[in-house]
Structure formats: C-alpha cells, structure tokens
UniProtKB/TrEMBL annotation:
Residues 8-86 form the DUF202 domain. The chain crosses the membrane at residues 16-36, 57-81, 101-122. Keywords: Cell membrane, Membrane, Transmembrane, Transmembrane helix. It comes from Acidiphilium iwatense. This is DUF202 domain-containing protein.
Amino acid sequence: MTVPRFSDHAANERTFLAWVRTAIAVMAFGFLVERFDIFLKIAGKSLGKKVAMSGQVTGSLVGLALIIAGALMVAAAMLRFTRNRTAISAEETHNAEGDKLDLALAGLIVVLGFGLAVYLGLTMLKGSGHG
C-alpha cells in the first residue's frame, strides 16, 4: 500500500515537529528565566554573598510570556499541520494561505527577546553600581 503524496506529507510532519521542538525550547527558556532567581540565591549562598533580587517580578513576567509564546507556537503548528495535510490530500490545487499567525508569533518572540535584553542590561548596570 502506498500513500499518495507521501513525500509532501512527510515534509509537513517534519515541519510540524520542528515547530514543536522550537516551542519546547522557548518554553524551557521561559521556565529558566522565570526560575533564575532560585539560581541566584543558591549561587549567592555558595559564594557567601547576599544577592539583590530587584528584578524578580520582571524576570517572572518575561519567563511567563515566553512560556505562553511557546504554547501559542504549538497551537499554531497544529493548525498549520492540519491545514497543510488537508491541502496536500485535496485533489485540486490551492493558493498558499497567509502566514499572519506565524509572523505574529515570530514578532512576539523578537519583542520578548529585546525586552529580555533590556532587562538583563538594566540588571547588569544596577549590579555594577551605575544605576
């Protein structure tokens, strides 16, 4: 038994799995950012120093936003996978649909990345006594 357009279906599945892997990485990074304060406390104790936790709320919000972005990426991947599977299986040809959701998620990740960079930059400035 052969599957019609098997290579197209396989490529669709590989793309879906790549999106899922990326989403898992984004969510894991969000968890790491959200829990970074625990690492700082442990590192401070082992070094015998008190660590200031001034950006704890900001770090938690950025981490939570990354976790939500990762979950949205999985949802978008599922929608895209099923839409592409239906289009591949259809006998007639279709025009490619818009990628607005993909672009919105990518934009969200870019905004979160810049926000995280600003947060870390400000935290470093405060830690060095310049803020």
